[in-house]
């Protein structure tokens, strides 16, 4: 019987995709997917450290494995991802959890196979963290084992140069490194040939794609080149940083049918003073001007965002400005976060840290506003016909599900096998973010 693996993933889509790469490596070493942790011969934690609670989660779950490891000493436990890449983190992990066998970082994920070999027959743990890498991770082979059909993630760049004052990502992911357009296009074409219907291009700031090679290529051009494939598919991307969200990109969205008319444009805050302290390099008015420009060129466009409350020194008036901006920009939905100090970042050292009570109160008010906007938009769907890409079946509900171009989830009944197909749904009910409809023609 083959050995089995189990991967536990925390964090953003970048990490979800990297777990597909980890799965690919493990399969090439003869492992197959296990159903539970008890069932596994190797458990890999792909961690995140964007906020303290992401780290606490991982720490808690790694700690809980001590018993399992004791009962089954042959079990391999590996920890990788953003958490391990922080200064001193590998040492801390080793001390806290001496039963962890392998610790690797964000820059050497592709070496996991070798690290497993090194661990074999050795008592001591294998720790390998690479710093300041300039080349591109695993560029020469797409070794991902994808399980997200009909959707696929494709990296276009790694790292971040922006150093927003609250953010740990530039420290744990290194400087921006753009993949060559021909590599990306050939990966996308390969996926479309295999029948994938939705491609999401990933980068911390896709708008600076190509800047690290002196602008030899750029993001709008990449989108246009990918869209030369004329069959029906959807193209998404994330994340776009507002500071260099420009008209050429908006034109590329408007020109190409395949690019979804949904832009995720994280604003973070509505107060110029806070935005300056965050080092975001735009004002609220500049942000809203870009939203206006987008709506002019792509009138049926929807906007989503990331918003943070409780940044150091944030006053009630600053927070009110965030609420006003949420209304003015008309976000369809938003990911909302409570600011979490990250050691090594500028904001963690700032005076005027906000108390947990105030943070809690503000996040509740923000979530209420965002949810009200989402509900209002959803209710406008009732009676309309939308097109969704069917992704899966919810066995509990006995319903198929998929998303429209704006990412809204639609549920429906079907007696065929609609997964991977575009389906027209007449919407009968809307509740919060999800819709219920009837497939036309069934
Ligand atoms: N590169 C993306 C963001 C990646 S992190 C961008 O610039 O838009 C995703 C989100 O996590 C950020 O947009 C921000 O809202 C949130 N975030 C980042 N650091 C945080 C921190 N220290 N505390 C709370 N939220 C944080
Ligand atoms: Fe973090 Fe800012 Fe880079 Fe986004 S752009 S990853 S928020 S530093
Ligand atoms: Fe993503 Fe978390 Fe790393 S959000 S880039 S996995 S710190």
UniProtKB/TrEMBL annotation:
Gene3D superfamilies: Methylthiotransferase, N-terminal domain, tm_1862 like domain. GO terms for molecular function: 4 iron, 4 sulfur cluster binding; metal ion binding; tRNA-2-methylthio-N(6)-dimethylallyladenosine(37) synthase activity. It catalyses: N(6)-dimethylallyladenosine(37) in tRNA + (sulfur carrier)-SH + AH2 + 2 S-adenosyl-L-methionine = 2-methylsulfanyl-N(6)-dimethylallyladenosine(37) in tRNA + (sulfur carrier)-H + 5'-deoxyadenosine + L-methionine + A + S-adenosyl-L-homocysteine + 2 H(+). Residues 146-376 form the Radical SAM core domain. The keyword Glycoprotein does not apply. Its cofactor is [4Fe-4S] cluster. The keyword Metal-binding applies. It is found in: Cytoplasm. [4Fe-4S] cluster 2 binds at residues 160, 164, 167. Residues 3-121 form the MTTase N-terminal domain. Binds 2 [4Fe-4S] clusters. One cluster is coordinated with 3 cysteines and an exchangeable S-adenosyl-L-methionine. Its EC number is 2.8.4.3. Keywords: 4Fe-4S, Cytoplasm, Iron, Iron-sulfur, Metal-binding, S-adenosyl-L-methionine, Transferase, tRNA processing. PROSITE patterns: MTTASE_N (PS51449), MTTASE_RADICAL (PS01278), RADICAL_SAM (PS51918), TRAM (PS50926). [4Fe-4S] cluster 1 binds at residues 12, 48, 82. Catalyzes the methylthiolation of N6-(dimethylallyl)adenosine (i(6)A), leading to the formation of 2-methylthio-N6-(dimethylallyl)adenosine (ms(2)i(6)A) at position 37 in tRNAs that read codons beginning with uridine. Monomer. NCBIfam families: miaB-methiolase, MiaB/RimO family radical SAM methylthiotransferase. Belongs to the methylthiotransferase family. MiaB subfamily. This is tRNA-2-methylthio-N(6)-dimethylallyladenosine synthase. It comes from Candidatus Borkfalkia avistercoris. The gene is miaB.
